[in-house]
C-alpha cells in the first residue's frame, strides 16, 4: 500500500576487521516514522551516516525515493538532518539559519521570507527570527533545527538522538511535538535513539539493532509483547527471563508449569522464556491464578505510580512483579512469603 | 581573579614572594623598552637619559628628514603582502590538513611547520643563496617570500588550533542541507574562523614589520626595510632618531597585542 522512500540492499560497512554494519536489508515507507534503536556500538549511527552520505558503505546499494544514491554526494541527496547538539550556525541569526537551505537552492527572497515565517510558526517560535542561536534555550534551539529541516521539504529527515541533551520533562514534551509535526506534515523520519521509551512513544516501527545487525523490526507493540530474542526482550522494558524446558505437553521453569508447550518444540528442549513484570501478579491470600509460584518478598521498590516487588523464587532466581502503587503497598513486609500468579498467554518463548 | 585570593584577601608568604619575583622579571624585561620612551622626547642629536627638555624634535626628524619614510613604506608594503600571502597559503593548508585524511598527513604537517625549528640565521642564509641564484635578491618579492617562510608556520599552527574549535557537525549539517564544499567553506567554516584568522594576520604583519635577520641578508641598500635601516644606521651614526622610531614600533606592537587580546576575549564570550 505505502510507497517506498528508502531501501537498504545488503549494505555492509567494515572498518578493517571490525564489522560496523552486517548486510542490512531495510525498507522505510513514505511518511513513516522509523526508529533505529540500540545500545552504543550497535551500528545505528553508522547506518544513519550511510544514508546521510558521510560514510560510504563497503558493499550493498542504497535507494532513496526510487533512485540509487549509493554514490551520490551528501549535498545532492535532498535530506534533512537534526543533531544532538542542534548544529545551528552560531554566526547567523535564527532567520538566516532557517533560510540557509533555501539560499543554497537559490530560492527567491520573498519566498524565503514567507517560508521562514511559516516554519517558525510551525514550531511555535514566531518571534525569534532576529535572534542568535545562543540566546535560545536548548529546547528552542532544537525546534529551530527541526524548522530548518522542514522548510525545504527534504525526502527524509534524519534525527540523531535529537533530545539527548535535554532534561526529562522537556524531552517528553519534545517527543510529542515531533510526533505532532510528523503526523500533521506527513514527512518521513528516521530517528536514532538508545532510549527505548522514546522509541516506543514516537515510532510507527522500531528497528532494533545489535552488533551491526537488525535484531528485530516491527511495531512498538510487537517488539514489546513479542520479542523474538533474549536481547530484544532485555533491551525493551523490564523483563523476567528464565531458563525453561519442555516436559511432555508442558513448558516448565523454576520447577513449575509456566505454559503449555509451544508447538514445534520437542520434549526435552531447553529454551528461554520471558514474562513482563506487569504480567506477574502478587496474589492475595486466597486468590487464584492459572499458574503460580511460591517465593519470599525481598524488596518493595516505590517508583511513583508503579511499585516493584522483588520476589525470590529459587536460590539464584529473583522475579520482579510490577503493579500500580496502592496506598498500603509500603506496609508489605520484606521476608514475607508470597505467591506470584500469571496467565500462560503472558509467556513469550525466546529464540536461543 | 578574586578566586586566587584567600577569603580575607590576604596571600600566603610563598605566593607573595612568587608574585614579587614575577613582577621583578617582568620589570627587567620591559625596562629597556620603557627607557626608550623618555629618550625619544629629547631635543639633541645625541642619546640623553633623562632628556634635558621634552620636545618632538626626534619625531620630526623621523617623519621629515633623510629617507626614513621610504624605509617605512617599504616595510609596510612587505608586511601587508606577507600577511596576505601567508594567510592565503596558511589558511588553505590548515583547512586541508584538518579536514581531509590522506597518507603522510602528519609528516606534511611537520614539514610545513619545520621553519619554526630551524634557526632564523640558517633560514636567512638559505634564502640568500636560493634567491641569489634566482636573481631575486634586492626585490620586494624576495622580502615577501622570505618573510612568508617565517610567518607561514605560525599561521598554520594558529588556524589548525582554530579549526579544532569549529564543530564538524556544522559543516555536515550545511552539506546535508545541500551546500557544496566551497559554499560550506565560504558560508560556515571561514566565518567561524574569522577571529583566528584575524589573530594570525596581526601576528604575521608584526613579524614581517619587525623582521631584521632575513631582510638584512636579502635586501639591497636602496630598498631597505625600516628595521634594516635602523640596524645599518647604528654602524654609521648613532642617531637618537632610533629612539623615536623604537618608541613608535613598541606602540605598534602594544596596540596589536591589545587587539589580539580583545579578539580572543570576544571569542570566549561569543
Describe this protein's structure.
With 352 residues, chain A is an alpha+beta fold. Chain A has two domains: 4-227, P-loop containing nucleotide triphosphate hydrolases (Rossmann fold, 3-Layer(aba) Sandwich), CATH 3.40.50.300; 240-350, RNA polymerase II/Efflux pump adaptor protein, barrel-sandwich hybrid domain (OB fold (Dihydrolipoamide Acetyltransferase, E2P), Beta Barrel), CATH 2.40.50.100. Chain A contains eight helices and 20 strands. Chain A has helices spanning 44-52, 94-104, 109-122, 138-150, 168-185, 196-202, 220-225, 230-235; strands spanning 4-15, 18-29, 33-37, 59-64, 67-68, 79-82, 156-160, 189-193, 205-210, 213-218, 240-247, 250-253, 256-260, 270-275, 281-283, 291-303, 306-314, 317-324, 337-342, 348-350. In chain A, the strands form four sheets. A six-stranded mixed β-sheet of chain A has the order 6-7-8-3-9-10, sandwiched between helices. A five-stranded antiparallel β-sheet of chain A has the order 13-12-11-14-20. Chain A has a five-stranded antiparallel β-sheet with strand order 15-19-16-17-18, with no helix packed on it. The two termini of chain A are 34 Å apart. By secondary structure, chain B is mainly α. Chain B folds into two domains: 13-57, no CATH class; 62-269, Orthogonal Bundle (MetI-like fold). Helix content of chain B is 74%, strand content 0%. Chain B has eleven helices and no strands. Chain B has helices at 13-40, 57-64, 68-99, 105-113, 120-133, 140-164, 168-176, 181-210, 213-218, 226-236, 241-269. Chain B starts with 12 loop residues before the first helix and ends with a helix. Residues 1-8 of chain B have low confidence and may be disordered. Chains A and B meet through strand 6 and helix 2 of A and helix 7 and helix 8 of B.
